[in-house]
Design brief:
The chain has 859 residues and is α+β, with helices and mostly antiparallel strands. Helices cover 21% and strands 33% of the residues. The two termini are 58 Å apart.
Amino acid sequence: MNNLSKKAASVILSLMVFAATAIPTQAGDSYEKSSQQNLVRFDLGGRWQVSASGSNDWFGATVPGCIHTDLLAAKRMPDPFYRDNESRVQWVGEQDWTYRRTFQVTGEFYAHEHLLLRCEGLDTLATVFINGVRLGQADNMFRTWEYDAKSLLKPGTNSIEVRFASVPSLIHAKEAERHLPGPHYPGQNYVRKMPSDFGWDWGPTLITCGIWRNISLVAFDAARLADVQILQDHSQTGTVKLAFQVSAGPVTDAALKARLIVTSPDGKIFSPIESLLTNGSGAAELSINHPKIWWPAGMGAHPLYMVRVELLDGQERLLDSMQKRIGLRTMRVLSPTNSSSMQFIVNGVPFFAKGANWIPADVFPTRLSKAQLRHNMTDAAAVNMNMLRFWGGGYYEDDELFDTCDELGICVWLDFKFAGSTVPVFDATYLANVRQEAEDQVKRLRLHPSIAIWCGNNEISYFRGKEEWTTNKMSEADYYLLFGETLGGVMHSLAPQADYVTGSPDCGDMHFWDVWHGGQPFEAYRKIHGFMSEFGFQAFPVPATVDAFTAPEDRTNIYSPMVKYHERSNRPFLGKAEDGTIGTDKIMKIVRMNFREPKDFESTLWLSQINQAYGIEFAAEGWRREMPKSMGCVYWQYNDDWPGTSWSSVDYFGRWKALQYRARHFYAPVLISGVFDPTNNSVALWLTSDELKPVSGKLEWRVTDLAGTELRAGKQDAAVAAQQSLQVGKLDLTDLLKKYGVTNLLVWLSFDMNGKTVSQNLVLFVKPKELELLNPGLSSDVSGSGTDFTISVHAKHPALWVWLDTAGTEAHLSDNFIPMASDSSIRFTVKLEKPMAKRDFVNAVKVHSLFDTFANTPH
Ligand code: BMA
């Protein structure tokens, strides 16, 4: 069917549906009910209809979802990620929209005493109607809204309608009443909605609305479970005592009882424990001997205990139940001291946090699949990260994402979702609204062992003034009323064992932006010490990603309007940087500081990635080497919410930039690195270890010229104590430097443990642009078939940042962007997402190195 006839068919279909029943009831409607449980949930998600409010032009919608993805599916909106379409779809956010559907209520379901409409996510200004009568309203995307719907429902066919008012209209009106200072979309923080929807310096402005999380009817009689809290006592060696608090409601005279069934990670079920509830609440305890302790990635296993909670009435009938998974661990955050940085301590052991900042993985998060999100997390663990900061400008992520972090040992720095400008704390309704939001989210998420710290906001301290509000600052008192008293109070009562800080960077951490925003060279990273929760540098995505958002004629130059359009820092969004450059110019300024002029468009894309990796690697190695003076390196940013140019190491499509590949090396548990000291012509050799036991092995070093001729080499035993960084050697290269010069020497390092190379590194004496590299003469040989290939690459002469370009075929590579010594070979393994004939694969894959990025004079 061509597009036109497809469209015509869907119009006819929707007309038929409309004519037959007004609003369709869907076939898949189902009640989730176990044989004995009294509480029943009726999922209202699935197929709905949506129309611009008042227009009666209904089309199919998906719940959970959002208006933009519904318009896309209905082909009523161009893809906002293509070229500059984003600017043409702003009307979507300005418009009011109405969602509706019908559903059947059986007599049995209706007979329950309580019938609640439960909305786990309404984005954002919603009014809900059942059978044409107003049931309630909502004004916070991050809260769970429940409405008593019994009086409006009836057995048989019912209808529900959710009307969403335009967020821009409301905030323009509020902003006109009173200006809310901030550099972003004026007045955006008047509404509790994902801040980055309004645009950020890495993402588009697409103001969504819709039913973005589950919506259901909940039916029950006597009571249901309201909340379960589990506190852990690790004070006795060899035992962890769990203290459960269960609450249920509404409180009735019924003799309610909670039963708790704990299953250990190896499947052993503890004898159920029971507690009678008084006024709806009860407590119980369980001691776990020989507990299996949860550790972050790289420190140990991540065992999880399952807790099933059952609510029973006086006759032992099951009223309600829920499952929670916990990990047994203690987690603390220590403030910085004169000699050590802010640091995390798990189970009494301090650890160096290695990671990046996580932003929404799509500006339309409802279309993200669980598999995609899981993939993102496994990619983080695969490059030796142990922490992601879930940044405050996004949304409180789904439980499944936290589940994955629990399973992988990825610690989460969890910001409450406030970012980047002042917030209207002067409005008591706003404050009450966010208190409720915090209670909902803390109760939902607090049992995840992966959450290492809760943090009030991102960078709102930059907009904190003194006594009074001014034209660009909020008052100090209002800042602390929200982020101290209110959120701190919620944390204190609902998650007393978790550490809470008011904001980032407001807690002893650092957002170090002197390089990107300040225009300083990468060397500035070595002048600062502590816990780096943000710092970073931008790079273009891979050519295949640029292809996805451009037309062929756009792919000529990084300054072509469409390539620039997908680089949000080209707008003086946060003001011009201190050195006067923005966006694309800023990338190129630092690229040129370090590298030679790239020869063409594609080389510029790749080289920008090499430059980004070069800078972040330089920074990360420095901070790791000096622990405990620095105890955290969490770079900005891990991912993207649309395809474009940004600080990310993994792009919107999940493709790795050079930085992500290099992270595996610079975050390796045991790291060998070298530091050139020009004052005495020496290279200090450092061994840095995050291992919990001492490590020892063989350190090998080779000094070569740029042709790869070995000038000197050596081997030595080297060891370092648990979680320490130590200088293990020093190479005096005075004579070689004199003879060959700084531009013609390379030092190759490798560290082997038990016959296995665990870390390799290369020391340069000058910036890469100063090196007269020889053509490395790379050759390759491909073997394999289907989805699994091996590429053996051989280098005649030293090659820097050797990479495989798999030209848009989705591939997982064993490594990429690595230095190769002369006459050396490396085997890359490639796993393709879709099988390919060997011949096609050989044609598609290209092997490159830094040498190929600039115009060379032949040697
Ligand atoms: C940080 C973040 C973001 C921003 C980034 C890059 O400070 O918190 O607000 O996107 O810088 O400018």
